[in-house]
Amino acid sequence: MYILNNQQTKSLEDATAQSGIPHISLMEFAGTAVSRQIIKSNDVTGKRIAVVCGCGNNGGDGFVAARKLYGAGAQVTILLAMGDPTTDDSQEMYRRACELDIPVIVRESEAAFGECIKYADIIVDAIFGIGFHGSARPAISEIFEMINNSQAVVYSVDVPSGVDSDNGQVAGVCVKADHTVTFTALKPGHVIFPAADFCGEVVTTYIGVPDDILEAQSTNIRALDFDYIKSIFEKRKKTATRATMASCFRYAEALECAALPCLPQKLPYVRARDL
What we know:
This protein is an alpha/beta fold. It has two domains: 6-216, 3-Layer(aba) Sandwich (Rossmann fold); 234-275, no CATH class. It has ten helices and seven strands. The chain has helices spanning 6-18, 23-41, 57-71, 88-99, 110-118, 138-149, 188-191, 211-216, 226-231, 242-245; strands at 48-53, 75-80, 104-106, 122-126, 153-157, 179-183, 201-205. The chain has a seven-stranded parallel beta sheet with strand order 3-2-1-4-5-6-7, sandwiched between helices. Helix 2 packs across helix 3 and helix 3 (57-71) packs parallel to helix 4 (88-99). The model is unreliable at 248-256 and 258-275 (pLDDT under 50).
């Protein structure tokens, strides 16, 4: 399973755009993927859903999700955490959502903004994405705390807002998600603590990036999943015995693999650099 950092993800999306799938289509697919995950796990008909959006492309994904959830019968409200959207694609997705007359509340309307979060059944966190670094300013941190103090089920778009997706650090307050819906590949913040502790259940969704472009993307981090582990072992033969199947190899960099000291020391192993 691929794990891509911010720059690698941008390179992947740029290559996808050059192949004929524009960035705005990827945004449409991403927001749709978020809405599908929510609908898959919840009967959204009549549910109060607060979609809290930032001003960048993560917010654009949120606008798409808001539109799809509204179409599925939910009582959707868009909350603008940082004012109007600023990127071309997010502005277009905001326009499409507004065409449906989905209610919009700005941060300056503090009472209404806070009440919408407080009484929501589901919250979609689409404030910051994988480009976030450092800590949020106090006004945004207050929104994170509102979300965390609510009784709603929280879905974060790509990563929980406030975590550093590249190194897994959390410099200040961040959103504590119940579910995180990411796209195409995991990000380091999904698997590196402390950020991983804020992600809840992480689901990786397909948004149209061609397999050949993904496979051509270089990365120095991969997650071990069942399919990958299965691919590196030969199928056990019917004539196999304990003698032929007993060897166990540990592939690890001694200085970089945290799991190495935890494994039984009598097992033979081969370091990756020796292969």
